[in-house]
């Protein structure tokens, strides 16, 4: 029995739509209930939110295209100013009109011009008896535009006196959109993340024709068992599934195992997936490099330019600041004179190491240090003379922004800010080289 039912649309189209949007039947059913029939006025604005790769854009595009509903689809990242956005909506309306072969250039400087030109475009398409849907993907970019753009889209149906519904797609909640002066409240709808069962069902649909569905489903089950805790992104998982399937099939191709011998298949693919956790998911190498690595049977570190951590491009003094911060985090304060002064005097050999201090500082983690200690170590490890200019302080702020340093406490401390170094020893070694 089909899950999608609506008297205004053919059953065959709904059945086809259901096959295209697996695990999103409840959301599509809710949208069809809100849309109603073609000639009915729908809700003026709908706000759909959810995490990345939860199917928001795909479901809206598939729904509107499959049911052949008149719509305009615009990505707000691509059209990042109000003028570009409004003109693109009018251009798409004009290009889909049946009585105009070529699209004329559209100039729309203000919202009043948009409302006037929008009415003309809707009249030319003869859409007075149908609902027109304007879908704005990545709608959080609207907050960076003029203050009247978002409220105008939320009540565009009222401004134009036309049967139009604006659908906003975003990854953030509506509370971060709502203007301080108030506006028309849209109908909000949440797209939850795919569960592991949903991902298993969706990814298993892409099985190659030369292998059985059960064999590919067992492979997807192994893949999700490794990657699900660290990656819920459907696009990433689909990419990983396509990239590593050839390695999974190697024992079957060589005749060493059959499709039901899951133990041998797992032992063959397990070390390979562990390497994939460090490479492909982080996009540190291209797919062609990864396939070459599969064929050669080498380690990920053997490819030049593999690790993004060892090739972070930083300004000249930022590298020294990061090294100085690492030394300040992991070396006790009492050793600074011994390490960084040429004439530090005679060192008295006393047993001042306490019992708890004999533990490696790398096991205890980084310790906070003040700004003046960081600068003092910097001046001692840099050969040339460094003046404490605004450039140096701005680079410290940049390292905090990049999360290579973390600030401990508040900015309004009387004794100055304190920092911690958050990078590993391998990272510092790569920077020091």
TrEMBL record:
Entry's localization field: Nucleus
Superkingdom of this protein's organism: Eukaryota
Cellular component terms (Gene Ontology): nuclear origin of replication recognition complex
Main location, first listed in the record: nucleus
Matching Pfam families: AAA_16, ORC5_C, ORC5_lid
Location of the ORC5 lid domain: 216-283
GO molecular function (one): DNA replication origin binding
Keyword Cell cycle tagged: no
Domain Orc1-like AAA ATPase: 21-167
Free-text function comment from the UniProt entry: Component of the origin recognition complex (ORC) that binds origins of replication. DNA-binding is ATP-dependent. The specific DNA sequences that define origins of replication have not been identified yet. ORC is required to assemble the pre-replication complex necessary to initiate DNA replication.
Protein family membership: Belongs to the ORC5 family.
The name this protein goes by in its record: Origin recognition complex subunit 5
Originating species: Edolisoma coerulescens
Gene coding for it: Orc5
């Amino acid at each position: 029995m089909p899950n999608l039912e609506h008297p205004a649309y053919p059953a065959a189209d709904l059945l086809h739509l259901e096959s295209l949007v697996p695990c999103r039947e409840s959301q599509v059913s809710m949208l069809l209930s809100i849309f109603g029939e073609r000639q009915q006025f729908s809700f003026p604005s709908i706000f759909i939110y959810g995490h990345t790769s939860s199917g928001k854009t795909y479901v809206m595009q598939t729904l509107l295209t499959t049911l052949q509903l008149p719509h305009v689809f615009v990505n707000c990242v691509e059209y990042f100013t109000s003028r570009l956005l409004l003109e693109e909506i009018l251009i798409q309306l004009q290009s889909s009109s049946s009585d105009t072969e070529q699209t004329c250039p559209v100039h729309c400087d203000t919202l009043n011009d948009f409302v006037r030109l929008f009415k003309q475009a809707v009249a030319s398409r003869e859409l007075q008896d149908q609902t027109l849907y304007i879908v704005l993907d990545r709608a959080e970019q609207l907050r960076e535009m003029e203050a009247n753009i978002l409220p105008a889209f939320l009540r565009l149906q009222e401004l134009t006196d036309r049967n139009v519904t604006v659908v906003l797609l975003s990854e953030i909640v509506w509370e971060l959109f709502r203007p301080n002066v108030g506006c028309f409240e849209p109908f909000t709808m949440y797209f939850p993340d795919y569960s592991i069962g949903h991902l298993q069902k969706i990814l298993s649909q892409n099985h190659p024709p030369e292998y059985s569905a059960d064999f590919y489903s067992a492979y997807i089950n192994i893949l999700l068992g490794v990657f699900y805790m660290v990656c819920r992104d459907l696009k990433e998982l689909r990419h990983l599934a396509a990239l590593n399937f050839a390695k999974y099939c190697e024992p079957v191709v060589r005749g060493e195992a059959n499709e039901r011998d899951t133990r041998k298949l797992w032992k063959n693919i397990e070390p390979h997936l562990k390497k994939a956790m460090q490479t492909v998911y982080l996009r540190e190498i291209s797919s062609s490099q990864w396939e070459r690595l599969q064929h050669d049977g080498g380690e990920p570190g053997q490819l030049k330019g593999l690790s993004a951590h060892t090739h972070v491009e930083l300004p000249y003094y930022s590298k020294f600041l990061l090294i100085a911060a690492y030394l300040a985090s992991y070396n006790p304060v009492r050793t600074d004179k011994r390490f960084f002064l040429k004439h530090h005097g005679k060192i008295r050999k006393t047993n001042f190491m306490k019992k708890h201090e004999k533990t490696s500082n790398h096991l205890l983690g980084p310790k906070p240090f003040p700004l003046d200690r960081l600068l003092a170590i910097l001046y001692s490890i840099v050969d040339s003379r460094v003046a404490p200019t605004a450039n140096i302080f701005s680079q410290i702020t940049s390292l905090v922004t990049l999360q290579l340093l973390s600030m401990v406490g508040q900015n309004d401390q009387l004794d100055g800010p304190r920092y911690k170094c958050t990078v590993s020893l391998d990272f510092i070694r790569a920077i020091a080289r």
